[in-house]
Amino acid sequence: MTTQEAFNVFLERVVNLNPDRVKRIEDAQRILTNFISTTDDFKELFIDSIKQGSAKHKTIIKPIGEDGRFDVDILIILKSMLPGRRNNIFQN
After folding, report:
1. What is the radius of gyration, based on Cα positions, of the chain?
2. In whole angstroms, what is the distance from residue 43 CA to residue 55 CA?
């Protein structure tokens, strides 16, 4: 086995997520966005959500540890409730 082949096996077995875990991350982002955009406390303020962190940049690795948990990073954009502020700083 070449060094490159050994490294590819290492990536597959130790580092990279399998398609099921990638789907779990994408589902979690979708579910969280849906919850925040529809819950009474935020639905009038919700503008958008943006994926963040390693999932967005496709640099996520398998979690270390027994439980296999990993976090999902997401940025939620809300309208400003402060007087005199534009509601959406991301639109012209």
Report:
1. 19
2. 25
Residue 88 belongs to what H/E stretch? none
CA separation for the pair 74, 51 (Å, rounded): 5
> In this structure, is the dihedral angle defined by the CA atoms of residues 54, 55, 60 and 65, taken in order, positive or negative?
positive
Per-residue pLDDT reduced to its tens digit, 27-37? 989 999 999 99
Residues composing the chain: 92
Decide: residue 51, CB within 10 A, 0-12 exposed, 13-18 middle, 19+ buried: middle
Q: Does the pTM of the predicted model rise above 0.85?
A: no
Residue 54: count of CB within 10 angstroms of its CB: 16
Amino acid letter, residue 80: S
